[in-house]
Amino acid sequence: MIDSLKMRLGEKVSTNRSVLEVHGRDEGYPDEQPPSAVVFAESARDVREVLTWASENRIPVIPFGAGTSLEGQLIPRGPAVSLDLSRMNRIVQIKPEDFLAVVEPGVTYPALNRALRHHGMFFPVDPGAEASLGGMAATNASGTTTVRYGGMRQNTLALEVILANGETLRLGRPVRKTSSGYDLKDLFIGSEGTLGVITELSLRLHPLPTHVHALRAFFKSIDAAAEAAYLVMASALPVARLELIDDIGLRAVNRYADRNYPESPALFMEFHSSSAAAMEEELGEATRLAQEAEATAVEEARGVEELTSLWEARHRVYWAFIALFSGRKYMITDAAVPISQMPSLIGFARRTLRDMQLDGSIIGHVGDGNFHVMIATAREDYPRAEAFAAQLVRAALEADGTATGEHGIGLRKKQFLALEHASAVKWMRMLKRLFDPNGLLNPGKVLDLGEEP
């Protein structure tokens, strides 16, 4: 059957074992299952060819970007074709006068920002990994700047999407606001490749800030750091980033990068100010708030070199954690709650890690109530890490939060969909059947179709 696909697309179809293995896993899920073939699409026409062939042969298709997802979104549940969009990496258009860029799904957000520097603009969504913009839209990714600029949903103006039957839809308009019709665009953002394949994105751009300053504050406990984050968010400060790293994360960075940061919980804060005078006043206020929460040390940064140095620990913490616990299996989970509930949920996560005797580090985008827990465990103890993730999600839902702030549902978290959304899950199933009646687009992810609506 794969031979017929090769007849259509030639060398763009690969059944090489190493290629299949790369496309049968992601960064945070323990199971691996290679697909039957990988297709490296180079155009929207290639995508239509694959989806038409899949419909004719009833073969599932799993869209693949950079492979950085964390909840099992990329892992086949049976025979399937992985549709790799990384070669669709053209920046179609940059329109600085409209604060707009049009890109193909395989463009990564760092590549887009490199191209935008010459125009004095940037795209703000920064999930940390070298993620592709199509994949970021598919999971409604966010990141360190979400607290000021929003995530993918707020920064995506229009999409081109190809449905399971090969039909192409243009959703949204390249304008800041519209009241025209049902908002189908936002239905596809965060759908994790289960409703259609994104082949083009129109993205909202922002001017590069001219007055940027940052602080790094250290605390005796993670509870004090979380409380300081809440105080900063409750102020009128122009917060652009507000990130937490716990003591274990900083210990990992010290060993990984040969640094000597205090090994205590820390907040990393960045502000985008309106003027140099405002910047001075805001630095003083942010320092005062950190000290009110009993910070043990506060460090300031201005200018590109100082800012880069200050943020180094946050950018390296994931790889540093893996190096600290080399040879283990790793799980990264996230949750988000209303900002007022964030300090108590972080405290719950720390106590639960201790009670379950798990090696874990808490980091996160605490400015928007979202944080991550990285856990290192032996393969035989992995179920204990899964049990922790389940407890964290239940605690977040009890606090009016969500099972995932930015990782998506994938395989791991679909068990909580009904608990979070109740009877709305029935309507999600009906939408899935409407757009993908044969269940061929990333089946088994987000929700199951076994039950009748």
Q: What do these coordinates show?
A:
The radius of gyration is 22 Å and the shape is globular. It is built from 16 helices and 18 strands. The protein has three domains: 2-84, Uridine Diphospho-n-acetylenolpyruvylglucosamine Reductase, domain 2, CATH 3.30.43; 91-207, Uridine Diphospho-n-acetylenolpyruvylglucosamine Reductase, domain 3 (2-Layer Sandwich), CATH 3.30.465.10; 211-398, 3-Layer(aba) Sandwich (Vanillyl-alcohol Oxidase, Chain A, domain 3). It has a seven-stranded antiparallel β-sheet, with helices on both faces. It has a five-stranded antiparallel β-sheet with strand order 5-6-10-8-9. A four-stranded mixed β-sheet has the order 1-2-4-3. The mean pLDDT is 94. It has helices spanning 2-9, 17-22, 44-57, 109-116, 133-138, 146-149, 152-155, 184-188, 222-234, 247-257, 276-292, 303-324, 342-355, 382-398, 417-421, 424-435, and strands at residues 13-14, 37-40, 61-64, 81-84, 91-95, 100-103, 121-122, 156-162, 168-172, 197-204, 206-207, 211-219, 239-245, 266-273, 295-302, 329-336, 359-365, 370-377. A hairpin with a 4-residue loop joins β5 and β6 (100-103). Helices cover 37% and strands 23% of the residues. The protein has 453 residues and is an alpha+beta fold.
What keywords describe this structure?
single chain, 453 residues, alpha+beta, Uridine Diphospho-n-acetylenolpyruvylglucosamine Reductase, domain 2, Uridine Diphospho-n-acetylenolpyruvylglucosamine Reductase, domain 3, Vanillyl-alcohol Oxidase, Chain A, domain 3, seven-stranded antiparallel β-sheet, five-stranded antiparallel β-sheet, 16 helices, 18 strands, globular
